[in-house]
Amino acid sequence: MIEVDQDACCLCGLCTGVCPPNALDLTETSLRVLSNCSSCGYCVPYCPVGALSGGRPRA
Fold it and tell me: What is the CATH class of 3-53?
C-alpha cells in the first residue's frame, strides 16, 4: 500500500492524475489512499515533495 506523509504533502494533485486504479482521493486538506490501491508505485515519482512512499519495486 502507498503511504502518504500528510505533513509533507503539498496537495498539488499530480499523483491523482497518474494513478492507474484512481486510488488516490484528494481533498482540500489531505490526500487519502483508497482500498483499491494496487501498490504499483506509479504515483511515487510524480510527487514533487516526496510525500509518497511504498509500492512494489520496479524490475
Answer: alpha beta
* pLDDT per residue of the chain (59 residues) written in tens, 0 to 9: 899 999 999 999 999 999 999 999 999 999 999 999 999 999 999 999 999 999 876 55
Task: Give pTM, 2 decimals.
Answer: 0.89
- Cα–Cα distance between 59 and 50 in angstroms, integer? 21
Q: Hey, which bits of the chain come out as E strands?
A: 3-4, 24-26, 31-33, 52-53
Residue 21, classed as helix, strand or coil, is coil
Q: How far is the C-alpha of 45 from the C-alpha of 53, rounded, in Å?
A: 9
Partner residues linked to 32 by β-bridges = 25
CA atoms within 13 A on the CB side of 58: 5
